[in-house]
Amino acid sequence: MINMKEYMLSSHEAIIELINGRFVDVLNECFFEKEVSVLIKDGSIISMSGSNGSNARIKPDISIDLKGRTVLPGLFNTHCHIQMINPTFLVNCKTQKARKQYHSMQVDNNMEECVARGITNIRDAYSPDLRPNRQLAQRINSGKLSGPRIQQAVVVGALGGYLSPDLKGLNKKVVGLLGQGNIDFEDKNSGVVAFPANAKEQEIRRTVDRAIDERGADLIKVGESLEKSMINSDPTIMDLEQLSTITDQSRKRGLQATIHSVSVDTFRRAVSAGFSSLAHVPRNGKLSQKDIKECLEAGCIIDPTLSVAYDMSWRIKGDPFYNNPVTAKLTRYRNEVYAGLADEFWIPELRDYVKAGFEKANDSRYNMFGIVDLSKLFAHFSALPAYGFENTKILFESGVSLSCCNDGGIQSCTPAMIGHELALMALAINQEDSEKKLDSAATIKAATISSARSMGIEDKFGSIEVGKIADLTIIDGDPFEDISLVGKPVDALFMDGKLIIDKIGLVG
Fold it and tell me: Could you say which DSSP state residue 396 is in?
């Protein structure tokens, strides 16, 4: 048997035994037997004593005592935007160099915070330029930066649609002013590949292939919804045949397909078109029982991103949702917890800007340069909690699988804030009239196996099973009794079978 020092320096060839831990069986919503031990080799779980797949004849090279801690699978954020750090727009406007520095510091901090909280897999749902995330992934893979694995989505859509506008004149100038740049769809570094609005099957299939072969897509995302914006007031809508072609070609190429879905109409067409997951929930109306039934039959997973509702649902006097009780409840919750979240997740150089931005938003005085009141321009986001929270509740109570994701990077959420997302999910579902409460077991599933399914990697991640990658989140306490433990800083973390965080001296 090798010693601890040798373990720290060893390759994956060593057989590691984990004992005296309370391993969570997310599939059956309980703990495994107390005496279970886990054997790890080459980064994967090769045996679990006391469960299927055990092999008592395998002798470990080293045994690690987990000291009675709880062991969860690695956690997920299935929908975030790594490079979108909005407060940097406000920081030191005199110096572009300072803005870039703070942006880089916060991105690195976000990645480190992810693994510090047990998040081992994230999915970037859209980046206009793919190069920064490629470089970030290289730094993580080479060990220069601590961070999770990154799946990168590439957007496929019709020109004129959401995330793929064909902008002209003043609209194009406005996009440039806001720092979004002018998207060159033909640039192989662009996160968007667009086809003409009237494109037929073969051209659409070729566009999906380009997203994979040219851009290296891990996921095909469709930007499609009925939402209007101040830039694109009449967005192009794809028909069912076009959407179905995208999902079919994605499946043929071995990839999942998701869709930006914030309207009831898009939800219905997306389910019919065969999308594996739907990003967001409708915010322009309530889903019907027929909608839910078809979603269940199709096996769609919903990525709710309720943190966007938290972050962007400003209460503007005069809008139709100002007195909505859910909106009011969310606003109270936001005001109570946000200062603490800013202190916890944002680098010191940006914390004050984050807090100030929310104070202005809450007071309906969100200004650009102290001149233009932006609050009213975004008043439509107040529908997010009114319908979004209600639809989340309906989906959950009907048995639809929900993943864990927060749209981190949009506004002031960070990718590491999954604990806050889970709290918002409970807030949406555990309303006074709810017959079925979001229990801890369902929440753990959302943060693990359901998210793995949403990302199409449930064969390797999302649960503690023989044959799966040894991503193990170790915490102190019982998450079935206190779900707030999920998403907090961990005591220890195994990733690819290697102990990368050890705050409790497992290996001394």
Answer: H
Using alpha carbons only, what angle is made at residue 416 by residues 267 and 447, rounded to the nearest 5 degrees?
55
**DSSP alpha helices (H): ranges in 77-122?**
96-116
The HSE-up count of residue 81 (CA atoms within 13 Å, CB side) is 20
**β-pairing verdict for 22-25 and 30-31:** antiparallel
Which residues make beta-bridge pairs with 153?
219
Please give the structure tokens belonging to residue 312.
């962007």
Q: 201 with 245: CB under 8 angstroms?
A: yes
pLDDT by residue (tens digit) across 261-284? 989 999 999 999 999 999 999 988
The pLDDT of residue 181 is 46
Q: Taking the CB of residue 433, how many other CB atoms lie within 10 A of it?
A: 5
Please tell me the distance from the alpha carbon of residue 221 to that of residue 257, in angstroms, as a whole number.
6
- DSSP E strands in 293-450: the ranges are 301-303, 367-368, 372-373
Contacts of 25-33 spanning 24+ positions with Cβ under 8 A: 25/463, 25/464, 26/72, 26/73, 26/444, 26/445, 26/448, 26/449, 26/462, 26/463, 26/464, 27/449, 27/463, 27/465, 29/441, 29/442, 29/444, 29/445, 30/441, 30/480, 31/480, 32/464
Residue 145, CA distances (Å) to 53, 114, 216, 466 in order: 35, 12, 22, 29
Q: What are phi and psi of 329, to 5 degrees?
A: -65, -45
Q: Which CATH superfamily is domain 4-73+460-502 in?
A: Urease, subunit C, domain 1 (2.30.40.10)
Summarize pLDDT for 313-371 with one digit per residue, the tens: 666 666 677 777 777 777 777 766 776 788 899 999 888 888 776 666 555 555 555 55
The radius of gyration of the chain's CA atoms, rounded to the nearest angstrom, is 23
| Angle, alpha carbons 421-140-254 (nearest 5°) | 70
DSSP summary character for residue 402: B
Say which CATH class 148-271 falls into: alpha beta
Digit-coded pLDDT (tens) for 94-137: 667 778 888 999 999 999 999 999 999 999 999 989 999 999 99
> Which residues does 34 contact at the CB level (< 8 Å), separation at least 6?
22
Helices and strands, number each (H, E), in the chain:
16, 20
Q: What is the pLDDT of residues 403-443, one digit of tens each?
A: 999 999 987 889 999 999 998 888 777 765 545 566 788 89
Q: Where exactly are the structural domains of the chain?
A: 4-73+460-502, 83-119+280-429, 148-271
- 317 CB-contact burial (10 Å; exposed 0-12 / middle 13-18 / buried 19+): exposed
- Position 155: which residue type? V
